[in-house]
Amino acid sequence: MSLELRDIHKSFGSVRANDGVSLTIEAGTLHGLLGENGAGKSTLMKVLSGFISADSGDVFLGGTRLELSSPRDGIEAGIGMLHQDPLVFLPFTVLDNFLLGSPGGARIDRGAGAGALRETCDRFGFTFDPGAPARSLTVGERQQLEIARLLWLGARVLILDEPTTGISATQRTTLFEVLRSLADEGMIVVFVSHKLEEVEELCERVTVMRRGTVVGEAEMPCPAERLVEMMFGRVFTEAELTRSPLGEPMLELDRATLRERALTTSELSVSVRRGEVVGLAGLEGSGQRTLLRAAVGLLEPVSGSVRIGGRDLTGHGYREFLEAGVHYLPAGRLEEGLVSGLTVAEHFLLAGGATGYFIDRGDARRQAETKIADHSIVGTPESTAEALSGGNQQRLLLAMTPPDVRLLLMEHPTRGLDIESADWVWTRLLERREQGTAIVFASADLDELLRYSDRIVVFFSGEVLKILDARESTGEELGHLIGGKELV
Amino acid sequence: MNGRGWAARTAAILVPIALAFAVAIVLLQLGGAPPLEALGLLWDGSVGSGAKVADTLAAWVPLTLAAAGLVVTFAAGLWNIGIEGQIVAGAIAATWVAREAPGPTPVLIPLMLLAGVIGGTLWALLAGVLKTRGGVNEIFGGLGLDFVASGLVIYLIIGPWKRAGIASTSGTDLFRNEAWLPTAGVNNVPAIAIGLTVAAVILVYLLMRGTRFGLRMKAVGRNARSAHLMGIPTERYTLGAFALCGGLAGLAGAIQVSSAFHKLVPSVSGGYGFLGILVVLLAAFRAAWIAPIALFFAAVAVGSTQLSLRLNLDSSLGGVLQGVLVLLVILAGGWQARRSRRARVDPTSREEP
Prior knowledge:
The complex is a heterodimer.
Chain A: E1 2-12, E2 15-26, E3 30-34, H1 41-48, E4 56-61, E5 64-65, H2 71-76, E6 79-82, H3 94-99, H4 110-124, H5 139-152, E7 157-161, H6 169-184, E8 188-193, H7 196-202, E9 205-210, E10 213-219, H8 224-232, E11 249-260, E12 263-273, E13 277-281, H9 288-295, E14 303-308, E15 311-312, H10 318-323, E16 326-329, H11 344-351, H12 361-374, H13 390-400, E17 407-411, H14 419-434, E18 438-442, H15 446-452, E19 455-460, E20 463-469, H16 475-482
Parallel strand pairs in A: 3-8, 3-9, 6-7, 7-8, 13-18, 13-19, 16-17, 17-18
Antiparallel strand pairs in A: 1-2, 1-4, 4-5, 9-10, 11-12, 11-14, 14-15, 19-20
Chain B: H1 3-30, H2 35-47, H3 50-75, H4 83-100, H5 105-132, H6 138-158, H7 191-210, H8 212-222, H9 224-229, H10 234-261, H11 272-282, H12 287-310, H13 317-344
């Protein structure tokens, strides 16, 4: 038996998440799907499990074409997906969760279910109490519960989307053993990850995706360098442009301990000077966002201090950071930046900082037209934010950024943008840098980090692993560091 | 809005209205009543005579005031279910002034109306503070405060403000004549109340369309996170929306006691707050649409009382008609939104591709 995906296309608005992906996975092989964040892995797997519908393309399982229009279709075809956050209903008991979604009529045979659950647990060495509330399980145990459930539902294909996020080392070992034995029994197991190390450890064959397409396949073991190169593309290290000298420190974190959700960054000290560009590298959620949020006053350090332009603003509110000339552009352009349903002209009105009670719509329109032309936004003053493409949303956000910003913080400044928009964004950012603005940006794009940063701060699970001089680093070194490995 | 938008919007309202009437006709048929005669009565009972028109307008006033206020809270992303309690609070405050303050009509009436506005505002701010400071969803907080307000009004009517000698839930003593809102003509058209209502609708329209305050309010309502990052003090705007809506609801309450009942009664809100929610949903949250839609709702509500008198039908038919209408309109809107969303972005994806 084999699972075959043929020419899958899926776009979200103007972004092509999957752009003609074809892939064959043989039963009995532990197949890895590797790629950086946003490469299109999750989209592809959601298509495969029926969670979202592809725009075009076909899925074949054992030679039969599957009609996948809902997760139910996926399960009926024998495709089980283990999501990044296990789909567990926390107030329910373990057994109730196990029985959820079970086929058949309204009557549920709890006895048979309990038996099946016990059997699966014994087989794989899972140890949880069927009567316990699901809330009491760790993420790893929830995952085990979900695997048991999918197997009981008759899954012949098991897809695991970034399954090792948030589980312990022991649970990881158990998980890997389970996956190996399932593959040995002839199941199709797809392991989706952006962690090189795990794919190296577990998988027998690996497919690498980048920017919505498959860029290569390899039998494992395979030299890590080759995989890194496939994941991130060719790394260029061009000679830097001439630079004006750096000014006085603009952002200074002094032994700042930051805590957000499960992530702790302890005693972080970093200083960014005027006219300097600092890149933040690391896997998604390794501490980059925490640093940015602390630098703009959205997160108060547990200890240590934050200074902006030499002034200690530790413990001050977000608005005081704004007044001090800090500006933050988060990754979610429509979630944390723009307002869906409001027009471009209205965004300029909101961001303008102008006072007065009344709005002169005619004047607002004229000003919006000027800014639209200045920033080459494809749209009109009446276009709503969500109607703009990702690139134009980013242009709008930059156009809304006050001209006198002294510290600009950005997450993924060019994610999802086409090359032209990405270049435009950086041209604008470098212009601001030349005027003395300090820029700190997080990115998953190694090229971008190496090309535009003066220094790169590499995060790994909350801590700063290393601070690199961008001009003396290579993509290979950076790629390894991001995966938590020093290059020897 | 361009010409096509207006046409689409009008169709989006007229088609469900026709369907709602069709449902009503089927219901009447099933109930054994002659549908055409019933609809005729509905017409006669609402606009058939000068007196009926005056009744309809009297119902239009509180309904439109409530709806105008709700346009503001909806813009700020809030479900102000507490509006019924805010109407009641306005009525209580106005009644207090009517009972306690001396003076002739030109002094007393403005004082009563002002007291109504203040009462409604404070009651609404209570729900607002519960939300912003206490983390209580405004739907639950508002609903709770509705019950508190209706409990309070009954306590006042059978307690401190009871009629001399009798404690009855039929209401307080009638106000003295100076506290009656003056009306115009033989049919007692509530001209002042209508004038105030028109002014309120225009105020809300201009506020939402032409002021920075309205624009920021919309930004907070549509995306509080983005608004916060833009430096807008979101909490202040949430409270502002509550205060405005509560003020208009309180004004409606004050008009109810000084014009419709001339006393405080337990059912002083008349359900106009909840009905106002339906009006705003039907108007797609736009201030410009609420006046005509509220007029239609008021006519149906007033006209349906005729059905019980003449055909021995329950007057709740009017409510059924309104409810079916709103469901159909929302359904139509939902279909449209679903279609356009399908065409654009798949909603199930959480990944940023």
